[in-house]
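User: Before I run my own analysis I want an independent prediction to cross-check against. Here's the chain; please return only the structure tokens and, at the end, one sentence I can use as a sanity check.
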Amino acid sequence: ICLNSCAMSESSTSAGSACSSRCRCAWRRSSARQSLREAAAAVALDEGALRRLVSSNLAASEAEMREMLLRGAPQHEAQQRASFGFNQTMQRACMSALEQRDLSLIHYARRGAASLGALQRLGALAPAWLLTRPPGRPVRLQLEELADTLDGSREAREYELRARLVRSVTEGAYNKLRPPPESLADPSVDHVISARDAARLRGGGGIDAVLVLDPEPALLPRHALAEASAELRRLVAQRTQESINPCNRGSWHGFLPLDADKAARQGLGPSTLALLRKLGALPALVSRCGWGRPLVLPPAVQLGFYPGGSGARYSPHLDRNPGEVGLKREITFLLYLNVDWDTDRHGGCLRLHPPDRASGAPVDVAPLGGRIVVFQSGKQLHEVLPCDGADRLALTLWCEYE
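Assistant: Structure tokens:
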């Protein structure tokens, strides 16, 4: 059609030039769309098949756990073994899928600069600055950097993919287990977070919005905190697993129910039950002062253990990254259980990072027994530094948005 139009316009040079210009623009737009379609096909990942695999393996894991319980295995042991088997199976499946996807991406990128540009526009490069700094680099060098980056980031991407898939499959059932904060309110902790504290937290603008609380009176008397800490340290060997997060190597994590009846059925002692009850009551102190959206509680809190002298640490991270689907962490509540902690000798601080370097230097918070730290999960960048000479223990409650 365009060629015919040009032929009929030969008597008018300006009209012919305009038509030619329109033809070239249309061709470029069509070519760009085709490049993006090809790039999208090259980086496609069949998450539907992986979600079906998650569902089938969750069912198999639950069946395995029921069988172990029928044979008389303790519940925590059955849960631990079933969870470990599920994660191992899904880890292999997700890693294999990413390896195939990365090979396809590299094969497409080798076509040249245009393909690399299409991948960049699609947002498929990791990281995107490979094509923007410094300019004018040879395509060969860009491809080498892309391949190295994909290899180096695959383990972390696998962990993120697996977590996202599990959340998407279990979200419906999980949402039914999330009560409002007011359901666990406890007047005995009303003094811990004031209305002014809640307003500062709600501001969420940098380290100044982080609450570092040493309440008086403490959540538990010193002797009761020591009892709870000793019991939870014994549980580390029974109910935790070593972290499979590549950013959090060497640490151990497990979960304890917030529900008082479930926690009691697990045989936890009175000091530990009291600690869980009071930790679970803290989000209500923030919720009653008003928040931007409705808050709900998770069914469990995380027990985190960092062995002293092991070099275990958690690299700088957010508890909820921008754009994460299914992860609804809104406010992080940390409770430290390290009685007689000596920061100078033991280290293990929580390091809080400012929003940018111009905002100031990082701030280190000692994980002293009974101390509570509260911040917005999706805004405060933080890390856990290695500890020496003593094991570091903490409970984490992630209050979520509805």
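Sanity check: The CA atoms of residues 68 and 74 lie 8 Å apart.
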